[in-house]
Write a structure and sequence with these properties.
The chain is an alpha/beta fold. It is about 35% helix and about 25% strand.
Length: about 190
């Protein structure tokens, strides 16, 4: 893996609890932007953002908005609708929110855009959750030379999303919650 320039995380059921466990260590030991696609209802995003902010030290937690300039030491949260994508525009890296009203494949959309912009300099993490969101995006991360980590079965509330990625041989590592934080913190 190259130098990590970003971290992209996808999660669904059980994700908020895991994020509160891993983000403090990750944010303490990194400066790169972090993009999180957590399946969450639109009305709950601000509460979720405020809750996470108290865990992450000097990182800023922001709900993603179109045309946000991506900054270091910032966590960008999926806004609870449509798709959050990363894009390059005149040398700057920005967010683009596609407002289609649905969260279907929100992790795939994020991971796909991260693969396109950051390539091998990104780590993607698939946490607990139902369904297969994150599978095609993980494939694109791997094709771009990036690293893919999945949460292990024992520490997952629901092992469907991580299992889909691991089952296709796309996971570089299958780790417990504590080991995800440690691995990602090593840079």
């Amino acid at each position: 893996m190259g130098r990590r320039e970003c971290l992209a995380i996808g999660a669904s059921m059980g994700g908020p609890k895991v994020l509160k466990e891993i983000l403090p260590e990750i944010c303490r030991n990194n400066i790169c932007p972090i993009f999180i696609a957590q399946h969450i209802e639109l009305r709950a995003t601000e509460c979720f953002r405020a809750s996470l902010q108290s865990y992450v030290g000097d990182y800023s937690i922001k709900i993603g908005e179109s045309l946000d300039n991506v900054q270091q030491r910032t966590v960008y949260l999926y806004p609870g609708f449509g798709h959050m994508r990363v894009m390059k525009n005149s040398g700057s890296i920005m967010l683009n929110i596609f407002e289609n009203g649905m969260m279907k494949n929100a992790v795939d959309a994020l991971f796909s855009s991260v693969a396109s912009v950051y390539g091998a300099d990104c780590t993607a993490v698939v946490l607990t959750g139902m369904g297969i969101d994150g599978l095609s995006g993980s494939y694109e991360i791997k094709q771009a030379g990036g690293e893919v980590i999945v949460q292990d079965r024992q520490s997952s509330l629901v092992w469907s999303m991580p299992s889909a990625v691991a089952g296709r041989g796309l996971a570089d590592r299958i780790l417990s919650v504590g080991n995800i934080a440690k691995h990602v913190s090593l840079g």
